[in-house]
């Protein structure tokens, strides 16, 4: 059974089908890449899966369980975690504070715990930060000494790593990465590519859906690529399959063939 599956997943914004009839499946341990021209619906697809947008029609399932229409925190509880195309960090806060802020989704303490068991809450926060910090240092050991440095003063790639580490706290089974190399230079992009491979080595069963424009990353990281154009899935296969697919070439070159 697929870990995550969508059937005819669609969303309409004021007459425009931003995502239309997308059938998609990913199994445990797989890495799948999403590519497509700007505005082709890649981010919107992840937004529906993660509950930020409600599908107009179609369904999404995690391990066969219908998750369509669930709220983002409920979908997170089903094991789906994500990062965003634009940074969600508070740049005037330290690395550690950003990790604390990001932990609220994985926190189990209730209002009762906050009021009457503050030590229990503190321990939970501390354990979450420690978990995120361990992941962060797995990417870059130097960051352990930089945990009280303001995020605006650390390199862009390390900021991306904070977001990914935060998303990995609580051991999600599915990680959605929306353009993790956006804004990185060529060298940093290659480092990020290795980081994603490191996630796979550390957490063998995790499945990752990665939106990415850099075709070198797409060649090296995912085992399968899904191509979007104008909200629809127009091709799917290995890197070799999709770069030689006429529909894909036309979509990228602005051709009319579909
Ligand atoms: N909240 C929204 N309201 C209206 N249109 C939207 C909204 N979100 C996305 N869209 C539209 O959906 C289309 C797909 O956008 P997006 O998923 O961000 O593309 P991509 O990530 O592939 O670049 C675009 O035409 C965009 O303008
Ligand atoms: Mg996008």
Protein described:
The protein is of the alpha/beta class and 258 residues long. It has 2 domains: 166 residues, Rossmann fold; 83 residues, no CATH class. The chain has 10 helices and 10 strands. A hairpin with a 2-residue loop joins strand 1 and strand 2. The longest helix is centred in the middle third of the chain and has 22 residues. It starts with a strand and ends in a 5-residue tail after the last helix. Bound molecules: adenosine-5'-diphosphate and magnesium ion. The site of magnesium ion (MG) has 3 residues, from helix 1. Magnesium ion binds next to helix 1.
Can you lay out the helices and strands and say which pair or pack?
Blueprint: E1 4-13, E2 16-26, E3 31-35, H1 42-49, E4 57-62, E5 65-66, H2 72-77, E6 80-82, H3 95-102, H4 111-116, H5 118-139, H6 156-168, E7 174-178, H7 186-202, E8 207-211, H8 215-220, E9 224-229, E10 232-237, H9 239-243, H10 246-253
Parallel strand pairs: 3-8, 3-9, 6-7, 7-8
Antiparallel strand pairs: 1-2, 1-4, 4-5, 9-10
The structure holds adenosine-5'-diphosphate and magnesium ion.
Adenosine-5'-diphosphate is lined by residues 13, 18, 36, 38-44.
Q: Could you give the order of strands across the largest sheet? A: 6-7-8-3-9-10
Strand content: 15-25%
Count, helices: 10
Rg over CA atoms:
19 Å
InterPro entries: AAA+_ATPase, ABC_AA/LPS_Transport, ABC_transporter-like_ATP-bd, BCA_ABC_TP_C, P-loop_NTPase
Pfam families: ABC_tran, BCA_ABC_TP_C
Protein name: ABC transporter domain-containing protein
GO biological process, one term: D-alanine transmembrane transport
